[in-house]
Amino acid sequence: MIRISIDAMGGDHGPDVVVPALATVATRRPDIRFIVYGREEIVGPILARFPKLAGVSELIHCEVAVRMDDKPSQALRNGRWKSSMWKAIEAVKNGTADACISAGNTGALMAMSKFCLRTMATIDRPAIAAIWPTLRGESVVLDVGATIGADAHQLVDFAILGTGMARSVFGVERPTVGLLNVGVEEIKGQEEVKDAGRMLREANLASMDYRGFVEGNDIGKGTVDVVVTEGFSGNIALKTAEGTARQFAQYLREAMSRTLMARLGYILARSAFNRLREKLDVGRSNGGVFLGLNGIVVKSHGGADANGFAAAVELGYDMVRNRLLDRIEADLDLFHARNPKAASLQRSGAETEEE
Amino acid sequence: MIRISIDAMGGDHGPDVVVPALATVATRRPDIRFIVYGREEIVGPILARFPKLAGVSELIHCEVAVRMDDKPSQALRNGRWKSSMWKAIEAVKNGTADACISAGNTGALMAMSKFCLRTMATIDRPAIAAIWPTLRGESVVLDVGATIGADAHQLVDFAILGTGMARSVFGVERPTVGLLNVGVEEIKGQEEVKDAGRMLREANLASMDYRGFVEGNDIGKGTVDVVVTEGFSGNIALKTAEGTARQFAQYLREAMSRTLMARLGYILARSAFNRLREKLDVGRSNGGVFLGLNGIVVKSHGGADANGFAAAVELGYDMVRNRLLDRIEADLDLFHARNPKAASLQRSGAETEEE
């Protein structure tokens, strides 16, 4: 049995999308159980429409809901201990749930997750990992925006975290890993990327096939299973890809309505176009996974529909099923056992890093 | 009359693509003159096939050609004073040409351009600007990879350089400008982006409509005419967009050949698809413009066909015609006259920056 805690009040559409999504998942994964946090008078009636779902769910009333435009500090001040978002995360901490899913605002969810679950022992900072559709299937890209900047040790941590995720989500035994870099040689800067590359090569972990540097266009090609970068570049890469995909979809619509022949062609090929549209949902369908915390938190896209939210729930389910946290902890232990200096350096770094 | 110096040996296809491209441009821009640098025995026979072009061109023999895989330092060592790339740049320095176009390797072209032309008086570092197709037309994005990292002063310089380019290429009197950033608030880091924003707002230049921060997805939307960022993020954004566009094209091909109906639809809509393909050439068609140097250098994409190289030549032509350098110099003077402190800070920064 896998128990998932749900923040029913998050996202642009709240329980209207969340509850139907859970109903879908409940029929597909019979061993799933839900603890649903939200306002009883709103969530209760929607839940009642899905008797099967209601049978595997417990609804817990929360007076407070974090708003989509709350700043992280506001959300912590007003929503800690009592909001549906906090309660859903806390269920993971208390062990009443195995993973938490929310479509609420990213900054608030990250702030609360860090505060409640804390980072893993040897990890300075959590990362947000996205599942990126590629020409070869899917890749994990991280960090896509948890923190700006990362030193070499943090990039190595991200590589280990991302590897654990790729193993537990894609079922690849030894995922290929690349560090995102720019192609021009002999230029200054980004020493941390080069240092991280050296450390990964030297560590030579059994669970990770480190392949060196990759460039922006390698993400879409699917050159590696895990693409590692710091949060600023990662966020810009993700958003730029989203923008380009939307641009392409718009061009396509325009092109296909310009002439009678094109319109006729469009009608004939409609199912192909629909398939195409699904494929292009870069970063929208599953949202982000928070890695490096003592618990699994999945952030569904705020604008996700029921299919999108269901995908996020199933992603959380799969990571629990495939023992994501155990895998990550084993890899971290192995890395630090082999690199005691790195571990101590990292700890001292962490102290100066915290405020 | 506008005189363009051409490195005929650059690019994956060399003079086979370069010379036919020049022939096209010569018919479209009757007041253009070319100084073509390359190996006479190779370029001469191709030029002879285009008598009209030969009439407006001077071919100057260069024994040495920079290779596409030469490192910048190698290229400088082996190609300085004598290669077709160097000679084409030097023609701009000597005033025998108004702009230089090369499809040769980016690192080598930038190293030689910096060495030969030097940066403008108040500019620390040159930037590479890309013309980015958007839903609203085109935008200038810089820096897409000249240097990794940029402080606030350098970002302000890039904003002024990009504004000059948008004015002279798009003919917009007061281009809108945005600084690329990530959306999450209340996170550490990227102080330089915030500082640059403050400086641009305070400077309140007549030629620039500064609009604040933009995110990755705003590039494709065309939210602003000029997107400013440092070279690492800029390069990753550009390459990621290229990757996504190529991914989309591949998905489209697959989708349109899967069923008989889809294939029939494709045939009917073929011209619409061809138009679409052209639109998606993010960063390929025109290549990059080197800004911040005492002279105009345009880098055409190495894999460009004759149309692509012709577009790069016409871009150089347009920037000369519309007095790009004068506009930039006037804006820089205005900015530094109003911000004498910024100017002196910048100069001292430049000293510590240089090796």
Notable characteristics:
alpha/beta; 11-stranded mixed beta sheet; Isopropylmalate Dehydrogenase; 15 helices; homodimer
Description:
Chains A, B: Homodimer. Probably interacts with PlsY. Chains A, B: This is Phosphate acyltransferase. The structure is a homodimer of 355-residue chains. Chain A is of the alpha/beta class and 355 residues long. Chain A has 15 helices and 11 strands. An 11-stranded mixed β-sheet of chain A has the order 3-2-1-4-11-10-5-6-9-7-8, with helices on both faces. In chain A, helix 1 packs across helix 2, helix 1 packs across helix 13 and helix 4 crosses helix 6. The radius of gyration of chain A is 21 Å and the shape is globular. At the A-B interface, helix 9, helix 10, helix 11 and helix 12 of A face helix 9, helix 10, helix 11 and helix 12 of B.
- Report, as a whole number of angstroms, the end-to-end distance of chain A: 40 Å
CATH class of the largest domain in chain A: Alpha Beta
What general outline of chain A do the C-alpha atoms trace?
globular
Total individual domains of chain A: 2
Q: Rg of chain A from C-alpha positions?
A: 21 Å
